[in-house]
Each structure stands twice: as structure tokens, then as C-alpha cells.
Design goal:
This protein is of the alpha+beta class. It has one domain: Glutamine Phosphoribosylpyrophosphate, subunit 1, domain 1 (4-Layer Sandwich). The protein has six helices and 14 strands. It has helices at 59-80, 86-99, 101-104, 148-158, 165-182, 212-223, and strands at 8-10, 13-18, 21-26, 30-32, 35-38, 44-48, 51-54, 57-58, 113-118, 123-129, 135-138, 141-144, 198-203, 206-209. The longest helix is centred in the N-terminal third of the chain and has 22 residues, at 59-80. It is globular, with a radius of gyration of 17 Å.
Length: 228
């Protein structure tokens, strides 16, 4: 909590590598102290065509960081005539998180995840950070936010090297559902209000958001014990 009082925080986000790229996902709840401040906040964004960033922590600074990150990548590509490498983008975000450290020390921490399709390697890659700007590449999956530990357990038990898009989206949904069961700050799917997690794939076709109707169908199969 900051000196000014409760601050809106985004919670659980994750990224998982699959055969053709990376899946990124995040729940939709934001909290202020012990209150639910938003039920449909978005935490997963395209950084550019080939990469995405998801946010956990103080929501206001996190969203501003995403906007500035998107602008910097676009500016670089226009000036240089070519996009940064995926690792270069990860380094750029690391510097932004490091520059935010004074605010983080006052309770406004931002801890993103970054993932994308490396066109040079032809594979998905993912990175996580700490509040000091430390950047760590993960091989298979990464999580952040208050429900990240619970989500990571599901990912660890269910991850399969070379899994396809559908299986990895289902795994991501199961991880978020488990996080919501165990962590009050993480919101689960809300069929009554029509609120579903934000899920996106990043592969050779670029950043693509998974439609809500597909997520609804997958959630129905998962809860019926018939996921495939």
C-alpha cells in the first residue's frame, strides 16, 4: 500500500511456450486493498506484431509502462527501418522496470512478463523480471502476480514440450482457474457477466488474441471434465 492509500493492482498473469510459439494469459480482476476495484481490467497487450507484454502490480504505472514500451518499439522500427531483436526488446523493458524502482520502493511495484516469437530462431521465447529490472529468460513457462505461485504449480505439472496451441490454452485456463480458487485477488472466468481471461498466442502469424467465444467453449469443456 502506498502512503496515499490503497492502489489498484493487477494480479495473475502467465506465459507458456508451445510448439509454434507462446501463449500469454491473464485474469481480469484488479484489487484495491481488500476490495475488488475492477472486474474486467486487461493485463495482456501486444508490444508489437511479434511480441506481447503482461502486467502485474500497480495497475496505473503498469499500463503507462506498456504504452511507453509500445511507442518506443514503434519509434525504433521507424527510425532504424527494422525491428529490434526479441532479446533487444526484452532488454528495453528491463531498463524501464529498473527506472521505475524508486516508485516500486514506495509500494508501486510493476512486475511484467514479456514473450514473443523470435523470427531469427523460429521459436517462442519468454522472460520474467523482478522490481529491480532483473531480466530472466525462462525455458517453458513464467508467472507473475499474487496468484502466480498457484498458477505455476499447474503449469509445472501439466507442461508438455511440443504441446499444440489448444492444449496450451487449456493448460493456461486451468492455471488461472486454480489461481482464482486459491488467491482472492485473482478473478476466475465469469460466465454470468461474460468476462473471460485475456489469452493471446504469439507465433509466426504474430500476436493474436483468442476470441471470448472460444474461451467460453474451452472453459465449459474443462469444467465438464472433457478438455481436449
Amino acid at each position: 500500500m502506498s502512503a496515499a492509500g490503497p492502489v489498484t493492482h493487477g494480479t495473475t498473469v502467465l506465459a507458456v511456450r508451445y510448439a509454434d510459439g507462446v501463449v500469454m494469459a491473464g485474469d481480469r480482476r484488479a484489487t484495491s486493498g481488500n476490495l475488488i476495484s475492477h472486474r474486467s481490467i486487461e493485463k495482456v497487450f501486444p508490444a508489437d506484431r511479434w511480441s506481447g507484454v503482461s502486467i502485474a502490480g500497480a495497475a496505473g504505472p503498469a499500463i503507462e509502462m506498456v504504452k511507453l514500451f509500445q511507442l518506443q518499439l514503434e519509434h525504433y522500427e521507424k527510425v532504424e527501418g527494422t525491428a529490434l531483436s526479441l532479446e533487444g526488446k526484452a532488454n528495453q523493458l528491463s531498463q524501464m522496470v529498473r527506472n521505475h524502482l524508486p516508485a516500486a520502493m514506495q509500494g508501486l511495484a510493476v512486475v511484467p512478463l514479456f514473450a514473443g516469437y523470435d523470427t531469427r530462431r523460429g521459436a517462442g521465447r519468454l522472460f520474467q523480471y523482478d522490481i529491480t529490472g532483473g531480466r530472466y529468460e525462462e525455458n517453458d513457462y513464467a508467472t507473475s502476480g499474487s496468484g502466480g505461485l498457484h498458477a505455476a504449480t499447474v503449469l509445472k505439472l501439466g507442461f508438455s514440450d511440443g504441446a499444440d496451441r489448444g492444449a496450451t490454452i487449456d493448460l493456461s485456463l486451468r492455471a488461472l482457474i486454480t489461481a482464482a480458487d486459491e488467491d482472492s485477488a485473482t478473478g476466475g472466468p465469469d460466465p454470468v457477466r461474460g468476462i473471460w481471461p485475456v489469452v493471446a498466442t504469439i507465433d509466426a502469424s504474430g500476436f493474436t488474441r483468442v476470441p471470448d467465444d472460444e474461451l467460453a467453449e474451452r472453459y465449459q469443456r474443462l469444467t465438464a471434465g472433457d478438455a481436449r
